[in-house]
Amino acid sequence: MEDERFMRIAFRLARLGRGFVSPNPLVGAVIVQRGRIVGVGYHRRYGEAHAEVRAIEDAGEDAVGGTMYVNLEPHSFHGKVPPCTDAIIRAGISRVVISNIDPNPKVAGKGVEILRKAGLEVEVGVLEEEGERLNEVFFKWIRTGRPFVTLKFAMTLDGFIADSRGNSRWITSEKSRRFVHKLRAWSDAVAVGAGTVIRDNPRLTVREYYAPRQPVKVIFDRNLTVWKRWEDYRIFDEGEIILFNSREEFEVRVRRAVVRGIIASSIEDALEYLGRNQITSLLVEGGSEILSRFMEKGLFDKVYAFWAPKVLGKGLSPFGLFDGNLEERLRLHGIKRLDGDVLAVYYPARK
Ligand SMILES: NC(=O)c1ccc[n+]([C@@H]2O[C@H](COP(=O)([O-])OP(=O)(O)OC[C@H]3O[C@@H](n4cnc5c(N)ncnc54)[C@H](OP(=O)(O)O)[C@@H]3O)[C@@H](O)[C@H]2O)c1
Q1: Domain final residue pick, 75, 109, 140
Q2: How is 257-290 classified by DSSP, letter by letter?
């Protein structure tokens, strides 16, 4: 129980890195001596010190003979920073408790082996499932080479994401909209279909939450309909933009934005491209056609449905073009109240 309690603290520390450490995993570490925390650390920013090293620095002499709790197996190779296994051994830690083995082939059990060989006691698998969930983005990307895909939409009480004329602004409360900005800040990229750019003219930036960098903006624009009239749309005001289309590859600067046209014959192609370019997470914000295609092909890892107590009578449904049975596709994970709205979170049913 003691082990689980300290591991939960490591998880909470790890979460502080959301939006800062990609494409690295979220990692938190706690050093404990006879029931007391003597050092804490987390991976704060990509390229900076790892959680284990920060916790060791924090503990100083108190680390000697202590137990380290760390959610992910310490890495054992010379990368951007020296191996954490060396630092742990040097600090005189005597026991290491780990939640998950690092699936990165450069680590994958080697870290544990090195620590054991050096005489440290190592325990693996404490709160393993929670650890998997904490790093669901990193694990998905490292195992498949594709980003973790989250579908997100806001709908009325009667199940519409826009009215019959295609207007969808302000369905949800301010609190829900702020939450969406948080989701954007934690994502490497945010995507919409051409139809949504045309109807809603979104900026697709993070404005109501601190983001060390803006997510890449992705537009599914098969026939370059949006691109042909880029002057009309705010999405081209700034940032890095990828336009998946079926016609041409290009790279152009417009306003304060860099726009890259990429040919992708399918959503799968697009996801492969993003994964190869260090995009570990993709937040898909609609519209109806794009959501339906991702659902149809089972190309999603999580769904956020915001549900607001408004009634439209008729309109556009989030998965209107999907023919199958949604009940069979989705497993409800949790419900949260956001002012007057309800947020339902789902995972794919097979997981
Ligand atoms: N409430 C909400 O949460 C919310 C969120 C977003 C949008 N909306 C509403 O949804 C409506 C827009 O939805 P929509 O279904 O009309 O449009 P959409 O899903 O935003 O975009 C559809 C377009 O995506 C392109 N596309 C589809 N698959 C593609 C692929 N594999 N590669 C490249 N491009 C691809 C197609 O372009 P081509 O036409 O060139 O083939 C298609 O026209 C608007 O009324 C908006 O207000 C609501």
Answers
A1: 140
A2: EEEEEEE-SSHHHHHHHHHHTT--EEEE---HHH
Residue pair 211/187 in contact (Cβ under 8 Å)? The answer is no
- Whether the CB-CB separation of 205 and 214 falls below 8 Å is answered with yes
Q: What angle do CA 98, 16, 94 make, to 5 degrees?
A: 30
For residues 235 and 334, membership in a common domain is answered with: yes
pLDDT tens digit sequence for 77-130 = 777 777 888 889 999 999 999 999 988 878 788 889 999 999 999 999 999 999
Same domain, 151 and 134: no
172 and 125 fall within a common domain: no
> Quick check: 51 and 43 in contact, CB under 8 A?
yes
When divided into structural domains, the chain yields a total of 2
pTM: 0.95
Are 94 and 11 members of one domain? yes
Residue nearest to atom 1 of ligand 1 (CA): 161
Residue 94 per-residue DSSP state = -
Query: Does 117 share its domain with 206?
Result: no
Q: Atom 13 in ligand 1: which residue has the minimum CA distance?
A: 287
Residue pLDDT, tens place only, 170-183: 789 999 999 999 99
Q: Could you tell me the distance, in angstroms and rounded to a whole number, from the CA of residue 139 to the centre of ligand 1?
A: 29
Looking at residue 86, its pLDDT comes to 83
The answer to whether residues 61 and 177 belong to one domain is no
DSSP calls for 197-214: HHHH-------SS--SSP
Distance 261 CA to ligand 1 centre (A): 17
Give the residue, out of 151, 157, 164, 168, with the most ligand 1 atoms within 8 A of its beta carbon, to mutate for a pocket test.
168
- Same structural domain, 110 and 170: no
Tell me the catalytic residues.
52
Backbone φ and ψ of 233, nearest 5°: -120, 135
| Domain that includes residue 105, residue range | 2-140
Say if residue 136 is in the same domain as residue 150.
Answer: no
Q: Rounded to the nearest 5 degrees, what angle is found at the Cα of 190, between the Cα atoms of 214 and 174? A: 80
Cβ < 6 A, ligand 1 pocket: 153-154, 161-162, 166, 168, 171, 192-196, 199-200, 220-223, 225, 244-245, 264, 266-267, 285-290, 293, 316
